[in-house]
Structure formats: C-alpha cells, structure tokens
TrEMBL record:
One Gene Ontology term from the biological process aspect of the record: intracellular signal transduction
Protein's name according to its UniProt entry: SOCS box domain-containing protein
Domain of life according to the entry: Eukaryota
InterPro entries, per the entry: SOCS_box, SOCS_box-like_dom_sf
Organism listed in the record: Lymnaea stagnalis (Great pond snail)
Residue span(s) of domain SOCS box: 393-424
Amino acid sequence: MFKMASFAQRRRKRACRMGAEESRNGNYGLMCASAVEANMNKQVQSARPWSLLHQCSLDQWNNGHGVAAAFSETTMTCNGVVFKDCSPSFCINRQGLLNVNKSEPFFSFRRKSKFTKMAEHFEYNHIPAHLSSIQNFHVNSVLCCQGQIVILHLVRNLMTQFGIIDLKANKFLGIFGNQRVEFINEALRGEISPDGSLCLIKLPTTRVGETGFVFQLYKLATKELLSEVNLAYNHALFVFDPRFSTSRIAVTSFVGGEDNSLSLIRVPTWEVMTTNSRVDDFNSSLNPNLKDLKYSRDGHLIFAVMITSGCHCKEKKARKCQPIDVSIYVFDGDTAQTLHCIQYHRYACGQHSCLVNYMPVLSECGSRMAIVLNDLETPIDHVQIYKLPIRGNLQNRCRVRILHTFPPETIKNLPLPRKLIRYLGFQPDYL
C-alpha cells in the first residue's frame, strides 16, 4: 500500500512539474491562428496520449488560438459567484446571460436584492407573468441544462419545484417534482439525460423520519417520477454516459462503505455494474475535495476534478491569495479503472468562484482537452491543450479523423446518411 501511494505521489508531482516546465519553454504563443491549426493537425498524428499539444496565454486563446484548435467553448474565466451568479452547470458568461437591469418603480429594492443575476433574468424573461405575479413563483437558480433545455429551481410558498424551459422556442414547458420544503441551491444537483427525455436530481429526502439525500428520476415529457433511491453519502456526484440515451450513469460514493469510489450504474434499476474503490490516492473520503464529474464526448473517459478545499478568495486588505491545486483523475468509461492524473495550479476559489475558472474543456472532436492554469512564479493565465487517448472501436477512430478534417459547421452538410451525421455529432445511440 505504501509503495502504491508513493508511486501515485511521484506521478502527480511529475505531472505538475512537467506542466510548469513546458509552460516556460516553447514559443507556441507566438503563432497566429492559422499556424496553430496547422501545427495541431501535424502533432496530433504522432503525439502520444496525454502529450502537450499547444500552450499560449489566455489572451491569445481568446483571440483565435482556441477556435483554431477546434474548441467551440473558449470561455475559460468568469467573475461570477457560484450559487449566486452561476450554478455548477450554468455560467452567466459561458451561456451569454446578461443581468437584467429593471428600473421600473414597481420593482422594489428589497425584491431586486432577493434575486441573483441569473434568477432575475429567467424570472423576468422566461417565466409566464401569471406564474410569477399571481401564483407567486420565484426562480432560485438554474439546476441543469442541455442544449436549449433548461431546468430551473423554483420556489412557491416555501416549497421547491422544478420548471422546464425551451430557450429555442422561448417557451415555458411546465413544472414537476413538487417538494414539501424549500431547499437552498447548494443542496440540489441535476442533470438531463443525453437524449433529453429524463432528468436526474439529487436532493435531501423529505420522507418523515428519514435523513440524507436521494436520487429522483423524472420523465420530462410527462413530468412523472419514474424511480427513486436513497444515497449512502450526501456528497455523491453523478453524470450520464453520453453513449447511451438514458440507461447508464457514473456515480461517486454510491456504494455503502465505499466513500472513495466511482461506480457505473444502470438506470432506472440502480444496478451497480462495476466499482473502483480507490478514486483519490491520498484521502479516504471524496468530500470536500471532489468538485465535479464529467465524461469525455465519446463516453470512453470519465474525469473527476478535485481541488484544494476551503476558501481561496483574495484578501480584502492585502489582495493576496494562494492558488488551489487542481487534480484531474481520469478513468475508463467502461471499467471505471484509473488511467491517468493531471495536476496544476490555479488562482481561483473553488468554494465561491464559477467552476469554469478551473474546469477542463473538450474540443469538438473530443480528442483534446484544454485547461487554464498558473505557474507559481507568476499569476499570468496560461492555456495548455493535451491530447486525449482515442479509445473504442474503428468507428469511433474514424469519427475523430473526420472531425479533424471538416469544420464543425460543415458536418451536417456532408453527403452522409442522417444516422451517421448524428453519430458524428456524438448523439447517443445514433438517435
């Protein structure tokens, strides 16, 4: 056991050290956008998995390097406060949400101060007037979103409910999941299934005489509760496997007595397919270091993002702060076994700042991962792009190659069957 821990520790230190050295060396940041694209296509063929493909400043990333490297999501920083301006799954900057400034006299100061930027926007722009004014519905936060579908945390008469909004049609689709009490935003977590038909929500139990948290699985079309299961640990995180419409999720700390575990679960039976009982090399519990869980675009990899716990906001007087340590543990999407670990430093507060400040983003082809980090010697923001291992069958490898060749906006116009076009877009089960 000691030898394994020592090896893991050396591996993590080496990963961090390599990132710092590579960040100081090389001249990738001097490239123009076209040179970045050409260099990326050249390197990606010969580079080994987890190799550093590109590095640049955050300004250069925003000014064309990110798009040239085939990343459609280039927002890597946000000044929003989590659970106030943003939620774990919805960033006011990344989704392009602006604060609504209501100057009319009937919007009292007391009412305005009650709502955050995000909640205020949705309440005044997407909730029907008769619900907010007559039935007294208020928006607390965005619970989760996928594409144009957004699930809101609503409150009415001190009771929590959930609302469905179609942003594309600008339509409020209804309410589901009425609860007996009002929950704070921090107590809730949700995710929509890859096909958009189900919503899985983690929330405190409301059963009389019981404590702890539960998973509740809802069908969005009918707004009915399909299944519910009690959780062994309150801090369990979950994510749907993008390869399947609704049938598989990855969950941390799902099995009793396994607080440092990652399990693959069948939905809605909650059958445990496999479990990795050692996610974190140095802690017996994933709480409070585990911040988020996500799949790669093709579903063959799972990323568990862990950060230094506690508040790391800038001190008001000295304006100094200590960087957080970010560790990305990578697991096999079919076996949950540990594959790799990347560690880096970031000047952000993992407790209060928006998650986009330290979370990795994935390229359109799904074979590259970008992170924003800081060297300890300087607070300057750097972006590094790493090559991910291409796993799965020949079909998946061909998809990556096609996405390397054609820009994302041209994929839907290729002379291919509709089912194949959907596969190229990472649609689950080729829907």
